[in-house]
Specification:
about 700 residues; 3-stranded antiparallel sheet; Rossmann fold
Amino acid sequence: MDLHTMTQALVSLAEDNIAFFSSQGPGETVRRLLGVFTGVREQALGVLPMLGRLLGVAHHFDLDSETPANGYRSLVHTTRCCLAHLLHKSRYVAANRRSIFFRASHNLAELEAYLAALTQLRALTYYAQRLLAANQPGVLFFEGDEGLSADFLREYVTLHKGCFYGRCLGFQFTPAIRPFLQTIAIGLVSFGEHYKRNETGLGVTASSLFTSGRFAIDPELRGAEFERITQNLDVYFWKAFWNITEIEVLSSLASIASANVRISRLLSLPPEAFEMPLVADPKLTVTISPPLAHTGPGPVLVRLISYDLREGQDSEELNKLVKSEGPWSLELRPRPPQAPRSRSLVIHIHGGGFVAQTSKSHEPYLKSWAQDLGTPILSIDYSLAPEAPFPRALEECFYAYCWAVTNCALLGIETEEHSDSDQKALGVMGLVRRDTALLLRDLRIGASSWLNSFLEFSGRKSHKTSAPTAEPMPMRRSVSEAALAQPEVPLGPDPIKSLTVQDLSLKGSSEVSNTCNTSLSAETLGPSKPSDVNFLLGPEEMSEEADTINKLCSPDRSRSSGTCASAAFPEGFHPRRSSQAATQMPLYFSPMAKNPFMSPLLAPDCMLESLPPVHLVACALDPMLDDSVMFARRLRSLGQPVTLRVVEDLPHGFLSLAALCRETREAAALCVERIRQVLAPPGPAERATPPRTPPA
């Protein structure tokens, strides 16, 4: 059913219910039912034209016609889901309102919750209109006007959002995942109650279980408490909550449900410098120094996961690096005692907003990957902010990658002397974050360091909220802590300056020297300008698109430098405001935020032009969707091979829910398929064939 037909049906049902309850006489419940259906009619009619305008220009922000996805489309989709729920509930009321079994109070509470959500979504459509008028054509983020960005953020944070976390939590996601999201929300607000009591570990978890019942019974209380937590608690709360999955009891339960592998061992790499050959000329080497930023030299933890025990993985040299965390896994099902070396290695860098979790939290799906791909996986446990801010994590990821390349034999990977093909020791396949890939590319170290980016946050200073129920506040705080927190320990040396390029006078080394001295200097790298990015539009198309978008700005609205001066709502429309919102929302503008290793969108063209093929998998209902779309458009404008697949109706972090339902299994299978494409690139005849859809 299209939006117009759905809205008209909803309005007709609302008017029919208004007429019925108007004849029911006085009473508090009847009065509230009349009010809610009147509100549904008003908000549905008010939001419809705004949704039509957004859909009218949304295609200008897609990667291509085959990938209709961006934050504007996500907002329209979310609003459509809310309208669909209201339509379903209004039909139920119309069909059952005369029955003696009709529960007026229950249906009233649900209708009021969805009406509140629709009201707030309508407010977001006006904010989206403001973005359209303020931004450059085709750009999904604020560019250049820090004052406008600050004003927009201050307005947004005052919006009431508790309605999205209460009775109608997760309405825009696939139905199979909503009970799990409700469980997470109940657990979070219960955990938040006990967090300030300085309880830790199992104590706070156990206390939360005893008090979670009232949040399950009272969705409105849960929504209000969720909003309070997201607005007021600090990054240490989020660290503690996200790390619950790593408590020994819970991690043991997760391990039981995950695939059985022969090896899952935590390794501690000693902070020792080593030499690494260059791809251009293996006779030349570069000295890879240990991580130094903020806290000085220290070991780097990595987790080796392998479905089979491969040659070299049980060596005495590797055993010396094992960090004790209990017995390592051995599968009971009979398998060959030692499998041959793998021709590839997947390097994984876990999520967690740069502030929480370790590879242990992501171990369940990594074990499945190791089984499905038949290749070992090395997951890097980088140091976490705010104790270890940027660029400490980047240094450690880079160091671990280089260590893996030079120690393939220990990891069960073919090296040059073991391989029967042209695969070289430097041909390690890497599943890495974009920032690490840029660093590897700029040093010309990885011969085939393929970049695959899955759902990472690129750390922009301002985002358009593509899914209002995925509150970006914790993410903003995480990135601020990761990038801008300054510990008492002074900032260590630049990660690039700590590298020593050997024999610079030799032929071919000047390019490496220039790269290290210029491309990677934080002082010389500012944010890329809008003019640097073509976005596949010619001058005439750019002008036409600008005219189309500018029409969305009301003619009576004052304009300054091509932007709308305010996001004024129409007369009589007032969204709900939050009593929990901060009175001031500080924005941090730091030179470090211009560093391209904080976000690839800030990198100049010269850094992106040499990247290998990039495969992106994103969620349509993820606040980070626009980062992936903009990054893909940027690469494509430079002629770089890039693919973007957007999965529908799933939240951020679906990989950790891979076993939950059919939709998450299919999305996880898509990610595995993308990695498999990298590990075994198609031949010339196969490249023209579109990738097959992963099996259900």
